[in-house]
Every structure is written in C-alpha cells, then in structure tokens.
Amino acid sequence: MSLNRRELLRTGWKVGGTLLVVAAGWTTYEALRPLAGGATGGRVSLGDPSNVEPGSATYFNEGRLWLTNADGQFFALSQKCPHLGCRVPFCESSGRFECPCHGSVFDIGGEYIKGPAPRGMDRYELSVADGVLVADTTKLLPGPDRGKSDFLTPARGPSCAEET
Prior knowledge:
Blueprint: H1 5-32, E1 43-47, E2 57-60, E3 65-70, E4 73-78, E5 90-91, E6 96-98, E7 105-106, E8 112-114, E9 123-129, E10 132-141, H2 160-163
Antiparallel strand pairs: 1-10, 2-3, 3-4, 4-9, 5-6, 6-7, 7-8, 9-10
C-alpha cells in the first residue's frame, strides 16, 4: 500500500496529536498526584536526648523527620509542610522552620506562626527506650492548631527567605 502526500500528512498529524495528548496527560498526572509518604514506616532511633541542644533541630534522613528540642520538650516533626507537602528546612539564623514554597513559618515546636498552612507541622509519636529517643514513623499525628504558641520565641535573627 502506498500513501499519497495528503494521507501521509494526515497520518502524521494524527500521530503528533496523539503524542501531544499523551504528554499533556502524563504532565497533568505528575503535577496533581499526591506526594509520596514522608516516612519510611518504622521505628527510627534518634539518639540520647541529652545530646540534643535546646532550640536545635536535627534532620534524620532515615525517618525523613526533624528532631527538635523546645526547652526540654522533644518533637519528631515531619519534614512535609501541612499546606502542600513541600520539604520544610530549618533556618539556623531565625531558629524557625520556613517553607520555601509558599512561605509558611513554624516555631521550634512545629507550631504555626504565619503563612497558608492550615496547622502546625505534623508530628511522629516519640518515646524513650533504654535512654534513646525513638520515633515511630507509622504514627503521624496532626500538627497543633493555629493559634497554639507554647514554644514561640522571638526569631534569633533574619529569616532565611529574606537572605535570598
């Protein structure tokens, strides 16, 4: 079977249009699908509580979480922002968690300060076993409601968002 020029162009347009629709569908799927879970789904040893300085935040890649010490109270905070799931870094200069995506800010205890987040940072169940802090990443607890400010302190310095 031989194709004339008109049939060849028509077939080319159909193939090109189909590829365009598939590419648009895949892009839409990638943009709208839920983010993968933030934790490995198990128990993670976080070390001796006496080694965690007050006002500090330490990231644990194994559990994809932050361990914080808010005046002697320890929290295992999810790395994901409760707004849209962006990874929230700790800003050393301000002493706060600052979401780079939409500007939500949280104190050292993960409590909401400002931004579009609906609540504070979600927390994992935390316990002490044989003198070691252990986070259970299968038990994610919703973050504190807006307005809760048990651990709010003035910022140590400039915001990381203001530095850029």
